[in-house]
Amino acid sequence: MNTADTLLSEAIITANVSSESLAEALDHADSLAPIRDQFICPVNEDGTRKVYLAGNSLGLPTTATAEYVTNELSRWGSLGVDGHFSPELGWASYHQLLTDQMSMIVGGHPNEVVVMNSLTVNLHLLMVSFYQPTEQRHKILIESHAFPSDHFAVESQIRQRGFRPEDSLVVVEPSGDDALLDPNHILDEIAKHGDELALVLLPGVQYYTGQVLPMVDITRAAHEVGAMVGFDLAHAAGNVLLELHDWGADFAAWCSYKYLNAGPGAVGGCFVHNRHIGDETLPKFLGWWGTNSATRFKMETVFEAIPTVESWQISNAPVLSMASLRASLDAIDSAGGMTPLRAKSELQIRYFDALLDDMVPTKVRCINPTAMQDRGCQFALEIVDPNHDGKSVFDQLEHAGIVCDWRYPNVIRVAPVPLYNSFGDIRQFVTTLRNILQ
User: Fold this and answer.
1) Which label site among 96, 105, 145, 336 has the fewest CB atoms less than 10 Å from its CB?
2) CA angle 425-391-23, nearest 5°?
3) Using CA atoms, how far apart are residues 105 and 404, in angstroms rounded to an integer?
4) For the chain, which residues score pLDDT lower than 50?
């Protein structure tokens, strides 16, 4: 047990968890605390830093982001079209600068991971390959509270293949009155529809509740019935530890503007397991950037697939967006990667839990799972005090300089991100929440 773990455990035992001195001591013991200075945070009117706890919606820029982007703007001005093939940072292969770092974050091999497009575009491109319905096997299993974009994408894929969502869409509901998905129920539904199931498409982390789904168990269950399995990692990449290759997932897609801090609407990424990469029978939408780079500029019309996941690329790289992502991935590298960041995140989760129990025990309900392996850094809080409306509480938090977000019908989402959030941020949030509710 390290110093911070010991401090928190002793404070819980001695009922001293809400003291300001504990937050200060935890921040002092945090070896990752200096990373916070690599990020730019919004400020209040008086110039003080806001408590930014909305990384689950949009991460903060690094102090190096402007430098990385400006460098490409400068190279564009000085090199023009020659920037595509300049010896350093050539734009034609710019996406490859991100491959190794991104592979480490999602637990894929470098030939399985590519940064390209946006999340929903990538999901569509991957479903072209991995949703191959037949008269017997045509169903897609998703969760009932899937992010709307995922739901729209799945329904449109079903219709495009000549089937009807009423017949081909399997929706897994939460158990009882709980907003959480029961992992055993998911596995049971996979088994129940097994002979008709073509694809399982689920989130790695559920966007509303912050629940981490058992991706390895889901993958195994889907494969046992002969279905493909893919994951939407929008809320998982950069948040929890991932081992996509070892788990055996067929594909995954994610965005980079949440926990990967690449900026609004930034470029996404995707993973395809290497057992599929050389399969020439897989259908896919083809584009110029998926063909052999050595012969691409001969302008021939014979597609020669790049022997990596890059063959799923359609177009050339959005370099300015990728430059911003490079800056953030370098900051993650400076923290030592995902393992130490997750360790800090787990300590912050424990601290947050303890503060909620100590300061607002009867007024707020945390709908997250309780087991650490089942949750990421996002908290999903319901205001259960009958004297206070949840949306009004959220508005007052915003007025007090706390940046979080509201999701209808009744959840305040709060995400302490270990890259740039301190233990002091967490205490300030819970203290402000208590003062609003008193």
Assistant:
1) 336
2) 15
3) 25
4) none
